[in-house]
Amino acid sequence: MPVRARPLSPHLLIYRWQIGNTLSILHRFTGVFLALGFVALSFWFVALATDDRSYRSATHLFASPLGWLALLGWTFAFFYHLLNGVRHLLWDVGRGFERVERRLSGWLAVIGAVVLTLCVWVLLWHFERL
Amino acid sequence: MSLRSPLGRVLGLGSAKSGTGHWWGQRVSAIALVPLSLWFVFSLLLLPDLDFATTRAWLHWPVSGFLAILLVIVVAYHSYLGTIVVIEDYVHAEGYKLLGLLLLRFLHVLVAGAAIFAILRIAFGT
Fold first, then answer.
1. How close is the nearest chain B Cα to the Cα of A21, in Å?
2. A80 part of contact set with chain B, CB < 8 Å
């Protein structure tokens, strides 16, 4: 079938940017980022199963500036996707659809994710794992 | 009696050719991942050290190894269900879409398989 450019209604452009759609996009974005994290996790397991030297070079890679940044991002992505995922599950059972509830739960997911990320990294620093 | 037009049937239009399976699988794996992923993160955090010997000893313990394998399986399933939707949403050319979906499927099995095999090696190794 020939693919022809059809006129589109401004289905995305007419809406005001707000917290609901931002968090929805962030949920998908963190999900894809966590899928990359799954590859890194698998790599870590394989290195751990191989030998001491492989594990050292793997942890060395994670301890590089880019490695730190990725780990920090994965921590936030994990907690945000988890909290916002619970928010989605509550919607699935028909709870929390009121305007106030939607906004409150959204902010709770974001702030909760930031706080939990900070907690994890402060704990890591406290236990001198960094 | 079908209400679908002959043309629609021939082109495979209309139904998404899957029921609620994808949606349900995503929710069930999400629920399973709440305790599993939290267990993993906090176990690593609470280990006295993250060096080779300590981490291996932790995974060598049957409960940890078993839960780690469950985690990998459920993460792979949840991640696969999530990422195929991204391809389906943004890649509209049939050929590239099929290629992307196949690639995602192979990659998820490969990555999960490697992780599970690694955990088993640690669990059953000395």
1. 16
2. no
Tokens of A74: 């994965």
Instruction: Please state, rounded to an integer, the average pLDDT across all residues of chain B.
Output: 92
For B39-74, write each residue's pLDDT tens digit.
999 999 999 999 999 999 999 999 999 999 999 999
pTM of the prediction? 0.89
Chain B residues close to A34, C-beta within 8 Å:
79
pLDDT of residue B14: 64
Class of domain A19-129: mainly alpha
Widest CA span of chain A, in angstroms?
62
CA distance A108 to A72: 20
B27/A49 Cβ within 8 A? no
Q: Which of A3, A29, A48 to mutate to test the interface with B (most CBs of B within 10 A)?
A: A48
For residues B36 and B47, what is the distance between their CA atoms, to the nearest angstrom?
17
Backbone angles phi, psi at B65, to 5 degrees: -60, -45
Do residues B45 and A124 make contact, with C-beta atoms less than 8 angstroms apart?
Answer: yes
pLDDT in tens, A56-75: 999 999 999 999 999 999 99
Cβ separation A32–B82 shorter than 8 A: yes
Taking an 8 Å cut-off on Cβ atoms, the answer to whether B121 and A38 are in contact is no
**Inter-residue contact B105 to A36 (CB < 8 Å):** no
